Amino acid sequence: MASSSAIPTAFLILSDTHDIEFDTFTKDVWPAQRKQEPRIDVVLHCGDMTRAGGISSFKKALKMMGSIEAELKLVTAGNHDLELDKHYWSTYRDEYGNAEDPADHDEAVKVMKGSLAAEAGVTFLDEGTCSFTLKSGATLKVYASPYTPAFFDWAFMYGENEDRLNLPDEARSGIKIFGPRPVPDGVDIIMTHGRPRGILDQIPQGNVGCDKLLRAIKRVKPIMHCFGHIHGAYGLEIVEWEKPAENRDADMSTRSPMEVEYSATGERELVRWQGRRGEQTLAVNAAIEKEPGKPPNAPWLVTLDLPRMR
After folding, report:
1. CA-CA distance, 25 to 167, in Å (whole number)?
2. pLDDT digit string, tens, across residues 195-229
3. E-strand stretches of 82-188
4. Alpha-carbon distance 53 to 175, whole Å?
5. How many helices (H) and strands (E) does the chain have?
6. Is the Cβ–Cβ distance between 29 and 59 less than 8 Å?
7. Which of 51, 58, 103, 300 holds its CA 20 to 30 A away from the CA of 254?
8. Other C-beta atoms within 10 Å of 168: how many?
């Protein structure tokens, strides 16, 4: 049940656009929503703007984001957005042993945080937490992370013995390395490129999500967690958090059997999600790209009740 002080706030959520052409986005993905002219307050892009980095590709992504009208547009990186990961870019060597130009990292950051981003209305989020207040008076506290478990030689990766999301006393045993900015309590929305284990992370071989991320999500229990990375698991799901019980595995959760009327194509009204805070989380895999050559998925349109500024 929504509080009388809650403010309905409309979100458009997308991820894994992978160099989608501006014309493809505006003609094949966006017009269905635009035809209805829904009010969008906040856009969330959960990473992989590009196919394999490239300054021109970051500029293309900003052009696409600039085509969407919204008061607040938040973007984080993904494993394909290579130059934005300073550590990756400074240590990567090609097949001939050649290093990349360090200036490319600086230029990529300049594009995503400079005048071009400002013109597109985009706020680029590094790993960590930020708070925002909209003109409506709605407030939101957002945690963002571009990191995913190690997979081949991509950017923003963490190893099996590393936990960037939880404090040492919150992590599972065997973790040796901890990140500088774990997920704090009290976050409204978590936007990551990676996916939690067992939630919209299915591939033919099984579930490939991260148990550390699931542990953090279960601890914080945000209103919404949005992500991408696994294209084939695109979807929306309610996660019901079980009540604490002695000796219960901290990684356990159940999915609600109830159906949610959502809007992925613009053919329906935006869903107004009024979940029970602390008991339910709306999980959204917003990967736009399908398999090569297939029409893209549409962004998700969701309305959340956010707290009013006090």
Report:
1. 40
2. 999 999 888 787 778 999 999 999 999 999 999 98
3. 122-124, 128-133, 139-145, 148-149, 157-158, 162-163, 177-178
4. 30
5. 7, 19
6. no
7. 300
8. 9
